[in-house]
């Protein structure tokens, strides 16, 4: 009898404790965060519990879709179609305000001066990355560089940066040429069989995926192709349907989907581990011999003796290396592929720039093979890339989480733990900093001012992020961009298909919702 009572009591205590914990983290903590931000003068759309502003964000998305489908002209004024809810809230609350993803408070920032003020005193290693996204995207990035923080981030960044050295990048260029050429051969076949319309977005994303997989871990290795397929399947599983990031227990809402992503994640990890072990073994066997082996980042990292099972210090463990391979894949292929895709759209509607670039390619590269050292000479192509990343920033936002209070003014503080969402699309389309022609495609902006394109504020142009955490892959993506664009432009001229619908929208990256069909003509 006594035992039963004790058991009942223990169980009662346990459930009360669990209930308290749930209430505390989903209710008390967010309210505290809300008050703290409100005291410091940050307001925004009123949130509801437990969805925050999520429902409004979903609703605004649907409405904007309908409106856009009726107009077919290509307008570069895309902020209100990419982020309709932010565009709406900006009207009421200005360029800095607070909104809620579920029970997570986010500080929205689209004012470069405010961003400069709060970020100037914070080192790369002192920034956090939002915990909600870390959890949500764990199967994709794990603890890789995009998500790492503090000393861990310093160590990873230090080991990884040299892998992107000009010499290492150069060694990858012929692989990029080969992979792209086989895509273009396929296009030629399609065109010759009477199909001049090619949906280039899908084509380029899969080619860029192949390039980045070869670049990161080498697809020639036995399991590379399988890893590649599973990585793509995982991205689809994670992002295909409605999600409620930040809403408590939402992972149980999308249970099947999460399970699928998790399962794929496990498979991928196992395959990558095997690739790494195989590679280690074959490198140990070929010591002093090889050289051609490490035309990929994994090979460079292994070669540099930066990797070892359990040693501490300036090294990555095999487990960490797996996460970095995935991070390169997800951070690197879609962003670059979409930069190329949006460029093809801009060039299709501005044929004058097609001829300008063709002329430049003829002068710089001639009729011979592309050599990586020539690519710096493609200046105009560089302006086009910068201008396209201004109008269509394929990484449309930058995220941070505050670690330790940040003092804005004498009496305003951004409290520890606040998430920050920096709206790059908005800043790149801000008349106040770019002038009246802000929405026009004008690559020549970057002629005089190659870094900022004449933007009135140095923090107003952020296609690759800012500060110490700026993208490590930007030189790699520039090289890939120039190689792929040069090959396309020398073999084809192209115009927009009447089937194209201009719907720039966000699915992690900024992409044309219904692809990009172009009419291709062999030259
Ligand atoms: C046009 C192509 C690309 C764009 C627009 C882009 C954009 C970005 C942005 C906005 C960030 C966040 C920076 C910040 O938080 O301040 C970032 C970080 C990163 N990117 Fe890229 N990226 C591109 C290509 C690549 C490629 C090709 C790779 C690798 C192969 C790559 C790997 C990474 C990594 C590892 C980080 C995390 C850096 C850190 O936190 O220290 N990216 N990128
Ligand atoms: C537009 O799409 C339709 C249906 O897919 C196709 O039959 C047609 O040929 C396309 N138009 C052009 C100009 O390619
Ligand atoms: C990219 O290349 C430039 C010039 O070669 C160099 O100054 C810069 O540090 C490189 N950036 C990265 C992220 O490797």
TrEMBL record:
One Gene Ontology CC term in the entry: membrane
Transmembrane segments: 6-29
UniProt main location, coarse: membrane
Domain of life: Eukaryota
Annotated heme binding sites: 471
Subcellular location: Membrane
GO MF annotation terms: heme binding; iron ion binding; monooxygenase activity; oxidoreductase activity, acting on paired donors, with incorporation or reduction of molecular oxygen
Cofactor(s) annotated in UniProt: heme
InterPro entries documented for this protein: Cyt_P450, Cyt_P450_CS, Cyt_P450_E_grp-I, Cyt_P450_sf, Cytochrome_P450_Monooxygen
UniProt entry keywords in alphabetical sequence: Heme, Iron, Membrane, Metal-binding, Monooxygenase, Oxidoreductase, Transmembrane, Transmembrane helix
PANTHER family reported for this sequence: CYTOCHROME P450 FAMILY MEMBER, CYTOCHROME P450, FAMILY 715, SUBFAMILY A, POLYPEPTIDE 1
Family designation: Belongs to the cytochrome P450 family.
Protein name according to UniProt: Cytochrome P450
């Amino acid at each position: 009898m006594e035992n039963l009572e004790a058991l009942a009591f223990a169980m009662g205590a346990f459930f009360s404790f669990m209930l308290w914990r749930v209430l505390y983290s989903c209710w008390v903590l967010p309210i505290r965060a809300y008050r703290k931000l409100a005291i410091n003068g940050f307001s925004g759309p009123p949130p509801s519990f437990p969805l925050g502003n999520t429902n409004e964000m979903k609703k605004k998305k649907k409405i904007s879709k309908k409106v856009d489908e009726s107009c077919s002209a290509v307008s570069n004024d895309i902020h209100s179609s990419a982020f309709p809810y932010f565009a709406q809230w900006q009207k009421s609350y200005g360029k800095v305000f607070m909104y809620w993803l579920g029970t997570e408070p986010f500080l929205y920032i689209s004012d470069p001066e405010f961003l400069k003020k709060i970020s100037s005193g914070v080192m790369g290693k002192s920034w956090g990355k939002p915990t909600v996204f870390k959890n949500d995207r764990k199967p994709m990035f794990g603890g890789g560089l995009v998500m790492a923080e503090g000393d861990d981030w310093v160590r990873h960044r230090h080991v990884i940066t040299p892998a992107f050295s000009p010499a290492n990048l150069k060694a990858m260029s012929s692989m990029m040429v080969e992979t792209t050429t086989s895509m273009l051969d396929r296009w030629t076949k399609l065109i010759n069989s009477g199909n001049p319309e090619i949906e280039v977005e899908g084509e380029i994303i899969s080619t860029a995926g192949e390039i980045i997989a070869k670049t990161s871990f080498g697809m020639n290795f036995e399991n590379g192709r399988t890893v590649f397929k599973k990585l793509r399947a995982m991205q689809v599983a994670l992002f295909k349907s409605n999600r409620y990031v930040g809403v408590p227990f939402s992972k149980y809402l999308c249970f099947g989907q999460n399970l699928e992503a998790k399962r794929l994640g496990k498979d991928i990890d196992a395959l990558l581990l095997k690739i790494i072990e195989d590679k280690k073994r074959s490198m140990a066997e070929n010591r002093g011999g090889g050289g051609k082996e490490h035309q990929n980042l994994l090979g460079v990292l292994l070669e540099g003796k930066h990797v070892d099972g359990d040693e501490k210090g300036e090294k990555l463990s095999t487990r960490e290396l797996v996460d970095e391979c995935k991070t390169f894949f997800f951070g690197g292929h879609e962003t670059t592929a979409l930069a190329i895709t949006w460029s093809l759209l801009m060039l299709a509607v501005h044929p004058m720039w097609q001829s300008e670039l063709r002329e430049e390619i003829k002068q710089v590269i001639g009729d011979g093979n592309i050599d990586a050292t020539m690519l710096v000479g493609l200046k105009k192509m560089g302006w086009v890339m910068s201008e396209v990343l201004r109008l269509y920033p394929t990484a449309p936002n930058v995220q941070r989480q505050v670690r330790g209070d940040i003092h804005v003014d004498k009496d305003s503080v951004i409290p520890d733990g606040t998430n920050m969402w920096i709206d790059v699309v908005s800043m790149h389309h801000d008349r106040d900093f770019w002038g009246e022609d802000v929405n026009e495609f004008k690559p020549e902006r970057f002629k005089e001012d190659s870094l900022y394109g004449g933007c009135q504020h140095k923090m107003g142009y952020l296609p690759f992020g800012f500060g110490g955490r700026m993208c490590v892959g930007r030189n790699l993506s520039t090289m890939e961009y120039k190689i792929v664009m040069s090959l396309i432009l020398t073999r084809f001229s192209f115009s927009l298909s009447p089937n194209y619908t201009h719907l720039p929208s966000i699915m992690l990256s900024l992409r044309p919702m219904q692809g990009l069909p172009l009419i291709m003509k062999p030259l």
